[in-house]
């Protein structure tokens, strides 16, 4: 599934429609950014000129999936767990839209 399909299925919107009036690019926050789907979404958003904050704990994500994104000055990676509310809140500051592509499960 490509980034356009993820966007249209999740929100019914095309990437082009998520640009604020006046041309300001939206800042996206992508959880699970180092996974296959998350990293492809990040690459597409960056390709379209958006600012992207990627968030991942790398439990299953692969750092090599972010090689291209990390070459962009519009990408910021925050390593953290979704269960760490303080870290998550800090990382999300300034984001206009969140793509939640990962969840955490506590094991007994």
**What structural category arises from helix and sheet content?**
alpha/beta
Mean pLDDT over the full residue set? 82
Number of beta-strand segments: 4
Unreliable residue runs? 6-13
Question: How much helix, percentage-wise, in residues?
Answer: 25-40%
Side-by-side strand order of the widest sheet: 3-2-1-4
Rough outline: globular
Query: How far is the first residue's CA from the last residue's CA?
Result: 33 Å
Tell me about the biggest sheet?
4 strands, parallel
Radius of gyration: 13 Å
SS summary, helix count: 3
- Tell me the strand percentage band: 15-25%
Q: SSE order in H/E notation?
A: HEHEEHE
How does this structure look, described?
Helices cover 27% and strands 19% of the residues. It is of the alpha/beta class and 108 residues long. 27% of the residues are buried. It has 3 helices and 4 strands, in the order H-E-H-E-E-H-E.
Task: Give short descriptive properties of this protein.
108 residues; 3 helices; globular
Give a quick rundown of the structure.
The protein is an alpha/beta fold and 108 residues long.
SSE map:
Layout: H1 3-11, E1 27-31, H2 36-47, E2 51-56, E3 75-79, H3 85-92, E4 97-100
Parallel strand pairs: 1-2, 1-4, 2-3
């Amino acid at each position: 599934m490509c980034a356009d399909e993820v966007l249209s299925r999740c929100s019914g919107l095309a990437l082009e429609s998520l640009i604020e009036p006046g041309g300001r690019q939206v800042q996206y926050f992508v959880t699970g950014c180092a996974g296959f789907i998350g990293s492809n979404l990040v690459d597409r958003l960056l390709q379209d000129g958006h600012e992207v904050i990627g968030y991942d704990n790398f439990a299953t994500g692969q750092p090599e999936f972010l090689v291209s994104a990390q070459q962009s000055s519009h990408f910021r990676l925050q390593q953290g767990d979704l269960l760490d509310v303080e870290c998550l809140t800090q990382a999300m500051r300034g984001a206009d839209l969140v793509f939640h592509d990962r969840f955490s499960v506590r094991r007994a």
